[in-house]
Amino acid sequence: METPLFYVETDKCTLCFACIRNCPVKAIDVKELTEWADISPDRCIGCGICYHNCPVNAIQFRQTTEEVSSILSENKDVIAICDPSISSEFTDIADYKKFVSMLRMLGFSKVHEAAFAVDIVALQYKKLFSDFKGKYYLTANCPSVVELVEKYHPELIDNLSPIPSPMIVATAIMRKIYGDTAKVVYIGPCIANKNELLKYSGTLRPDSAITFIELRQLFEKDQITEGKVEYSDFDSPIGEKGALYPISEGILESCSPDKSLLTRPIQTVESSSDVKEAIKTFEEDIEMLHKHLNLFMCQGCMMGPGCATSNNKHSRSAYTIDYAKKRISILNYTKWEAEIEKYAGIETPAVYHANDQRRKLPGKKQIAEILEI
């Protein structure tokens, strides 16, 4: 049986109720005759808010470091796909080329950046929005947003974008390049990726996903530091504006050339409370909203719960933009355009499953019985 994505170490829990107060979907409660919080895997959407709000570190997430170590030890060719958020996470490493070499030293034979897959995803969104025929969409780049819809707004599943997240698209590209049996590990700031990949199969499914927190643990375990490695660049294909993906608005740089608030057909919404409110408005009054929604439960992927460092949003955004400028300034556009044409046609159907977890309101009889207790 799969370990729950988030769970409580009961001996550490002090019942401070911080997790219960902050859970956006009320997936945490205290069971009768217990003295600790309990997370319902069925109701949980994997946002990680409880993990970051627990003052005593009683809440943990499913670790996959041993799984990745096993993949690396048992296979000669293992591909690492790095989320573009590395630009704001690994600022303690002097040069990204050192970071790439550290991954190779860990045992990865190929090291790719997901920015190119984001470029592909952005082009798909651009086509989706330009072919607009009166139907509005919710982007599906954030797996926690997808689970929020699947579990608490299942009527909106048809409005979820038919385009999967960059992790899935990047995996499909890697399998196209290296073959269907290639081992793929996704490295990023999102804990929910660990559950997201379980929805997919075949060439669309990564073999594992680890967070930046776990990657740092692997570096420490093998005593890998930048001082021990030489420079090494990412393997091709290289991305363009996909490097801006860690910022919530980043993907719109490519898929929505219209920057005007008056005419742009897409509205970006980030953070759990605003996302919940936006989805409710989308569901109840879409004719007033007249917008597609670009949704992220965090303040951009650069602020994901799987990040190990505590840089604030503004510094992370600055690091991301600076990195993107450097990468774009040296991009071979002729090669990039050829690779976009080569891989843009890969079929990557999104997978969604309705899983209604809404609690029914008690009837008058039940309320009366409760009040009598």
Structure report:
A hairpin with an 8-residue loop joins β2 (28-29) and β3 (38-39). The protein has a four-stranded parallel β-sheet with strand order 6-5-7-8, sandwiched between helices. A two-stranded antiparallel ribbon has the order 1-4. It has helices at 18-22, 49-53, 65-74, 86-89, 96-106, 115-130, 143-152, 166-178, 193-196, 212-221, 252-255, 272-289, 313-329, 333-343, 364-372; strands at residues 6-8, 28-29, 38-39, 59-61, 78-82, 110-113, 183-188, 208-211, 266-270, 292-296. The chain is α/β, with parallel strands linked by helices and 373 residues long. The model has no long low-confidence stretch (mean pLDDT 94). The chain has 15 helices and ten strands. The radius of gyration is 21 Å and the shape is globular. The two termini are 37 Å apart.
Secondary-structure map with pairings?
Layout: E1 6-8, H1 18-22, E2 28-29, E3 38-39, H2 49-53, E4 59-61, H3 65-74, E5 78-82, H4 86-89, H5 96-106, E6 110-113, H6 115-130, H7 143-152, H8 166-178, E7 183-188, H9 193-196, E8 208-211, H10 212-221, H11 252-255, E9 266-270, H12 272-289, E10 292-296, H13 313-329, H14 333-343, H15 364-372
Parallel strand pairs: 5-6, 5-7, 7-8, 9-10
Antiparallel strand pairs: 1-4, 2-3
Helix pairs in contact: 6-8
Short précis:
This protein has helices spanning 18-22, 49-53, 65-74, 86-89, 96-106, 115-130, 143-152, 166-178, 193-196, 212-221, 252-255, 272-289, 313-329, 333-343, 364-372; strands at residues 6-8, 28-29, 38-39, 59-61, 78-82, 110-113, 183-188, 208-211, 266-270, 292-296. By secondary structure, it is an alpha/beta fold.
